[in-house]
Amino acid sequence: MNIASVRRPIIPPTPPRAPDNLSFFGRLAVIRQNMIATWGQRAYEEEIIQGRFFLHKSFILNQPDAIRHVLLSNYENYSRTPAGIRMLRPVLGEGLLLAEGHAWTHQRRTLAPAFTPRATANLVPHMTAVLDETIAKLDARTNEPVDLREIMQRMTLEIAGRTMFSFGMDRHGPTLRNFVMEYGERLGRAYFLDMVLPVSWPTPMDRARARFRTRWTEFVARLIAERRAAGKKDGAPPRDLFDLMDESRDPETGKGFSDEQLVDEVATMILAGHETTATALFWALYLLALDPDTQEEVASETRGEHLDSMADIDRQKFTRAVIEETMRLYPPAFLVARAARDKDNVAGAEVSRGDIIMIAPWLLHRHEKLWDQPNAFIPKRFMSKEPPDRFAYLPFGAGPRVCIGAPFAQAESVLALARLIGAFRIGLADEAPVIPYGVVTTQPDHSPMFRITRR
């Protein structure tokens, strides 16, 4: 994709690339600290890279047709790896993200009505109310250093709480944030035994994760109990995601969710809905602070807009392109790993049962054969008449298991960025480069301080 640009685009900092001949154990040592620093230059140039993972072959796929085959054409042949299950099950349980087979089909059909464009539009007032409060709080902190990453985390958590339960997260927010931080710092990292042992063989970390899961599910169940205690007026339309999810029924079987299943679905939606959106907004604000000209284009687009409905959000074409380019450079899910259930042929490569397929949006989105100036921040590439190949750009996955909440996350991100940049000029008070690292999501290595001034 060729991108015409009048001025030189910015190239944000990234971790150094690993030597292509890095040993297996050298790579393993880096994985726990920063997965995206384990890939060398070959991974950004070649379409398919074959290696070995203990007794099995491994493949990194950077070819859209090969990715389409794995995620769409033959997706039932590929399941999550033992390490992937270990990382996610303690916080997501058997929710939609981890479910397989008939359980996944039931959950997907049952949840679908809660995430239609119409349902998302009905939740926009919750988002705008939180944004109004956030902007008011930021007004009192102009011209002083602020940690916008923390503010985005608190803001998106508040939006998640109100859109899910119609109540604020003042009381519960700190506890939820502590759960997220505790898990990400230690339990959400892959250890050697996590990667080599079957899921049915508990590792020492699995025992710690099990203890965490007990406390975590009890906490989510308390949130659900509090929401149910608030009740709902007879005959009133659903007022939040919980109403929609609690009332949802599989259109074929008429079956809804049990209380245990509802805990896992709520946990999935809260975590996926607030942590990944907060991270995407942080990276977007960081990029716009590095690129004041692009920041002014966003501000110009929002000028005179009310920004309180889906129609207003849909008109923010350039702001949406900024979000899309941000998620290209900093994909929330930097790696998708799958294990083959049976033999297959992927773009001429013979895949055997147990082989590992890796699709890394971090690599795919910066691949030198797929993108012009792949490491540069150029939002207008997403306003081109030639959009990227559907399987070359995967911020929300693809195929039948594409993220069900993508329209909600996109609407929230565009609305938040437009409102914030429409209200404030944002610059960096901290000159240290921010380096992305991959643990559970694509996180910054530190939270830089920003300065904001009222427009």
Structure explained in plain terms:
By secondary structure, this protein is α+β, with helices and mostly antiparallel strands. The chain has one domain (24-454): Cytochrome p450 (Orthogonal Bundle), CATH 1.10.630.10. Helices cover 48% and strands 10% of the residues. The chain is built from 16 helices and 11 strands. It has helices spanning 24-31, 64-73, 82-92, 101-111, 117-139, 148-165, 173-187, 192-196, 204-230, 241-247, 259-290, 292-302, 310-314, 317-329, 361-364, 406-423, and strands spanning 48-53, 56-61, 78-80, 336-340, 344-346, 349-351, 356-359, 424-428, 436-438, 442-444, 450-454. A 5-stranded mixed beta sheet has the order 1-2-7-4-3. A hairpin with a 3-residue loop joins strand 9 (436-438) and strand 10. Helix 3 runs parallel beside helix 9 (204-230), helix 11 runs parallel beside helix 16 and helix 12 crosses helix 16. The radius of gyration is 22 Å and the shape is globular. The two termini are 35 Å apart. The model has no long low-confidence stretch (mean pLDDT 89).
